[in-house]
Amino acid sequence: MNRLRVAVIGGGGAGLCAARYMAARPDKFEPVVFEKAENVGGTWVYTEETGKDKYGYPIHSSMYSSLRTNLPKEVMAFPDFPFDSSLPSFIKHTDVLKYIEQYAQHFNLLKYIQFCKVVELVRPISSADDTKHVSWEVTVRDVRNLQSESTTEKFDAVIVCNGHYAVPKIPTIPGLDTFSGEVLHSHEYRHPSIFNDQTVLVIGAGASGIDIALDISSKAKQVYISHWKPRIASTLPENIKEVQAVKAVSSSEAIFTDDARVHIDAILFCTGYNYDFSFLHTDCKVNVGDGRVTPLYKHVLHSTFPSLSFIGITMRICPFPQFAAQCQFALAALDGSMKLPSRIEMEANEAEDYQNRLDQGLPHRYAHFMGMRQWDYNADLLRQANLDQHAPVVEKLYDAIAVERKRNVCHYKNINFKLIDGNNFETLQSVEQ
């Protein structure tokens, strides 16, 4: 077969992973990575800036200054590229960025990346509705000179790796427009000092909600965590209190579903993010509705246009190991080494997966939620692509830390781990950091 020219949108972990597996097979693939920023790393590139960058584009990163990972590095690594063993298990965001940079250098990926290039449009080109032999027009512009003309290139395939932690999702709350204090989303949060001696309402108790509530409790007078999930099992700092979901807001109060009221000075939304595929032409036939992207087979391949794939849209995962499985799965579909089901079969599989989630009580917006599902899912992708399975120790350690996090949310990041082999790990002494 001829070499396939593949456009990769995004130079974060997912985009670099896609480039890494294509670069290893130069006889089959020619990757071209378009990255809007000046460097690799995606969401892991920390900046003090919020709002717009110097070129007028929305800030992409959602990192805050003191962020440390909520997964140990021993489970976070790409399967073929371990983290520096001298680092503690729960590392700073700067360590993750350095790791991504080292990954790009180790696999010699920088030569495939066009920096400061924003993708403005992706459009399929086919004759007589022949979706199996579609090609793709990709239009890009240099962010450093928005007056310059955009350029359009032709590709055999497109892999979308633009992440989903950049466009804040803020729910509609009655009275929010009347609130007199500061309102911001975790995307804009950087330092706890902005809440010095304030009473802060944190809305959302996912990973970022709990981590940020703990972070700001060091400076705030009182922190309320408002959410609809089961109550947090762990002991919390004295100035953090759980409350019910917010029903309404007044100029200075929050009213909850149990009709309790509290005075608040600020509101911090930790309510997640929206997918943004605004660069896809309507001819791409990609639908995004309240957290669900369709039509995607195995959360990766467009069932009508299998040469269009999406890496990393899933939630609650070990990102880098799953990126590796998804990228190799997508490439096996591209090079023909994996025979795909028919479009009708792929759509039926997607519908069944979605219905199973609803039957288990998950809301619609959890269409791409993984959690404990991720292990069977990863194994299925690798099996279909006829690839080696990931080491079982990753799942075992992930499960162990999930238990520890619930039990000891304030201190679990002080634990260190060591991988003994592909099946076993060792828990080391706790450390103070």
How does this structure look, described?
It is a single chain. This protein has 433 residues and is of the alpha/beta class. Helices cover 23% and strands 23% of the residues. It is built from 8 helices and 24 strands. The strands form 8 sheets. Strands 3-2-1-7-22 form a 5-stranded parallel β-sheet, covered by helices on one side. Strands 9-16-10-11-12 form a 5-stranded parallel β-sheet, covered by helices on one side. Strand 23 and strand 24 form a beta hairpin. Helix 5 runs parallel beside helix 7. It starts with a strand and ends in a 6-residue tail after the last strand.
Salient structural properties:
five-stranded parallel β-sheet, alpha/beta, 8 helices, 23% helix
